[in-house]
Amino acid sequence: MTISSSERLNLTRWNSQKPFHEVYYPQWHDPIQQIAGWIRFTLRAPAKAEPAAPVAQVWGIFFDGRRPGKNLALKQTVPLSNCRIERDFFYLAL
């Protein structure tokens, strides 16, 4: 599989050897219906001196400009050991 140089810039960089924080998030909006949302993927690997283990998080947020009561935000945190990260193309499964 060949990837472009711009795609290569989006590959996960964490090598499990040092403290790290990496974030990816696609976002979208529909100005006609006044709705928007985004999904955020986060990898967090604290320094060894910190008690926290490496984790991955997925966040999802939906905005409804016409009906703010329908706005929704969710977050899930899982151990990084439960995730699959590919190095040759962008792939992150939690």
Relevant terms:
five-stranded antiparallel β-sheet, flat, 94 residues
Structural description of this entry:
By secondary structure, the chain is mainly β. The chain has 1 helix and 7 strands; from the N terminus they run αβββββββ. The strands form 2 sheets. Strands 1, 2, 3, 4 and 5 form a 5-stranded antiparallel beta sheet that branches. A two-stranded antiparallel sheet has the order 6-7. β4 and β5 form a beta hairpin. The mean pLDDT is 81.
**Beta-strand fraction estimate:** 35-45%
Q: What is the number of E strands?
A: 7
Give the biggest sheet.
Answer: 5 strands, antiparallel
**End-to-end CA span:** 23 Å
Order of helices and strands: HEEEEEEE
Could you say which overall geometry the principal axes of the C-alpha atoms support? flat
Helix content: under 10%
Our count of helices gives 1
Q: What's the overall average pLDDT, rounded? A: 81
User: Which spans have pLDDT < 50 for at least 5 consecutive residues?
Assistant: none
Rg estimate, integer Å: 16 Å
Secondary-structure class: mainly beta
Question: How would you sum up this structure in a few lines?
Answer:
This protein has about 90 residues and is mainly beta. The chain has one helix spanning about 5-10, and strands at about 20-25, 25-30, 35-45, 55-65, 70-80, 85, 90-94. Strands 1, 2, 3, 4 and 5 form a 5-stranded antiparallel beta sheet that branches.
